[in-house]
């Protein structure tokens, strides 16, 4: 029953994010006279939301491959490559980046939507795509936490991957600004340089906290199962 649920969930979610990436890249064309950002250097790859949608599509494809060629055992002795890749991916990027994108987007939308998604974009960026890329990313990554177990990597490795990814994107944002004179997100325009540095530091700290949140949730959901498995394994010896 659980295996069937996992396969169905992973297949549907992979198709969902693959379609979101395809539709956003192909059809959400914003004229330059509406906003300078969308026509600036970097194309769709300017936006962390787009990066994350690609990450989620790749991750759930890996989940699907693991369903057929790996294992969803709670604590496998020798996890196959697909399972190791899945566990590392979800712990270091899948969960924290999805939650970071979703929480920061909706928090800024609550403060002032013009800081992240101006009303002028509504005719070009449909509401359902907005929810796929900013709401469903949180729902699916939490549901994945419940549907299938994972073994968290060493914190130094998991956090190292996450921080490296975020720093690469931070550098990319500055490359875009250097090339086009436009900040990817309007909120950057209203901050002074010291406040911008503080803002980046707070966001990186928040992203790190989300890593620990994912680890904690995993322990809450699967901790007892891991313990039971270890005890039964010890008795069998």
TrEMBL record:
The keyword Coiled coil is annotated on this UniProt entry: no
Predominant location category: membrane
Catalytic function, reaction form: 9-(9Z-hexadecenoyloxy)-octadecanoate + H2O = (9Z)-hexadecenoate + 9-hydroxy-octadecanoate + H(+); 9-hexadecanoyloxy-octadecanoate + H2O = 9-hydroxy-octadecanoate + hexadecanoate + H(+); 12-(9Z-hexadecenoyloxy)-octadecanoate + H2O = 12-hydroxyoctadecanoate + (9Z)-hexadecenoate + H(+); 13-octadecanoyloxy-octadecanoate + H2O = 13-hydroxy-octadecanoate + octadecanoate + H(+)
Subcellular location: Endomembrane system
UniProt keywords, alphabetically: Membrane, Transmembrane, Transmembrane helix
Superkingdom field: Eukaryota
Family: Belongs to the AIG1 family.
Name of this protein: Androgen-induced gene 1 protein-like
């Amino acid at each position: 029953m659980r295996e069937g649920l996992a396969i169905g969930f992973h297949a549907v979610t992979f198709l969902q994010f693959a379609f979101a990436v395809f539709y956003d890249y192909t059809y959400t064309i914003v004229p330059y006279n509406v906003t300078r950002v969308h026509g600036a250097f970097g194309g769709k790859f300017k936006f962390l939301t787009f990066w994350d949608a690609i990450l989620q599509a790749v991750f759930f494809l890996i989940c699907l491959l693991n369903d057929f060629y790996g294992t969803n055992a709670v604590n496998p002795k020798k996890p196959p490559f697909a399972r190791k890749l899945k566990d590392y991916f979800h712990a270091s990027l899948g969960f924290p980046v999805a939650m970071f994108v979703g929480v920061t987007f909706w928090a800024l939308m609550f403060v002032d939507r013009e800081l992240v998604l101006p009303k002028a974009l509504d005719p070009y960026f449909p509401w359902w795509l907005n929810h796929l890329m900013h709401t469903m990313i949180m729902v699916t990554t939490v549901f994945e936490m419940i549907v299938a177990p994972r073994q968290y990597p060493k914190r130094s490795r998991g956090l190292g991957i996450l921080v490296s990814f975020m720093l690469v994107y931070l550098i990319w944002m500055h490359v875009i600004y250097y090339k086009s004179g436009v900040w990817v997100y309007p909120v950057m325009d209203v901050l002074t340089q010291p406040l911008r540095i503080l803002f980046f530091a707070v966001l990186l700290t928040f992203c790190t906290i989300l890593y620990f949140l994912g680890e904690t949730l995993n322990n809450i959901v699967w901790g007892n199962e891991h313990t039971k498995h270890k005890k039964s394994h010890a008795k069998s010896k």
